[in-house]
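Consider today's protein:

***
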Amino acid sequence: MRFLIVGAGAIGGYFGGRLVQKGEDVTFLVRNAKQIQLEADGLFVKSVHGDFQTSVRTISNREEAEIFDCIIIAVKAYHLTQVMNDIKPYVGEHTLILPLLNGYDQFSILQKRFGLEHVLGGLCYIETTLDSIGTIVQSSSFHSIVFGEWAGGESERTRLLLSHLDHAGFTVTLSSDIQREVWQKYIFVASLSGITTLMDSSVGPILTSPKARAIYEQLLQEIVSLAQNAGMPVGPEMSASTMQKMLSVLPEFTSSMHRDLHKQLPVEADHLHGALLAMAVPGQGAYPVLETVYARLKVYESVNDMR
């Protein structure tokens, strides 16, 4: 199976690098500057699961290449429009597209562009970032991909993909109910990024402060309630499971959005919190904490001229 990994950053570089280590046929689609750096230095990962450095195969935008069997999209959601143009030459009749982006809207966007039959549901759980010299730093015990047919169930093609993703040094799960899994991740990421950026803090101090924890719990409940009112595959138990996950992480754990904010990088405010508020059914529920989070992030974008 020929893999194209879109992006060799913190997420794409990590999972793609692990697949290279396993011996899979992997190519990275990257920008010219990144291509030069990777060709010179290779891909370097510092991980709690073991450091490694490897040479990788790369192509840049519009560079000729054969059709790929699976295209894994591992970039920030605000790059999706450009990415769809970039991958179009490499999508064939049987190509699978596996997005590992935060949010929910990206699936319908990709399906409209490439067709329902090409787009799988997918997500990942990992804490990883790039340091000042471009090394991928992976610092959590969890490093997993979950994927499946968007319509549910399993298929021959997803079982084949599982066989190639499995035993690559990270956890992979084939889900028969991927839309529910996507929403579980969306709720976790939106509440985590919302509270860490609002409080400008990692998880530990937020959960040990009674008032801050109460605000987090309200934010979490608002997101779950909003999704339920909008008819999404979200059950009331998702509040409890998300809280359990928050309580299980290390005190220094934070969101990638919080890290990006401190680096004065763009954030996924519109794709996470803004997209949620756009789903709100008029007259059904109030979402004051979620609206406060979104307003805080839009102020950040305005102050840093990120339009």
Notes: The longest helix spans residues 178-199. The CA atoms of residues 138 and 201 lie 19 Å apart.
